Amino acid sequence: MVFFVGEYRVTFSGQGRIIIPKKIREALGTSKTFTLTKGFDGCLSGFRNTDWEKAANELISQSSLEEQKSETKRHLFSSAAIIEIDNQGRFVIPKVLLDYASLKNNATIIGVGDHFEVWESNKWNEYIKKIKP
Hints:
By secondary structure, this protein is α+β, with helices and mostly antiparallel strands.
């Protein structure tokens, strides 16, 4: 399996439309779709569909009686969308996800091993400053 790695600055080429960096596209494999949902810390998380299904099944199998598990399910499933990649390697982020992540003109896409994240660039810069030792 190819891991999602790297940090890439991208600019929107239309309303909510950005290009997927080559290394991220390679990690997605041959599929022309992927799953995008709300991440944590105000970013978006993108998954190979097979990885999303596996993680979703694990999450569903957990008890909904625990408040934290229910909140996580609501957070992830309420906004999950299957996203299509066009022939130029671009995709459109749904408005609800654009608003959640405060995305407007540019973004930073980072690889996180088993998935990738889409951050508003200033938020990403602030996050990096906060976690640096």
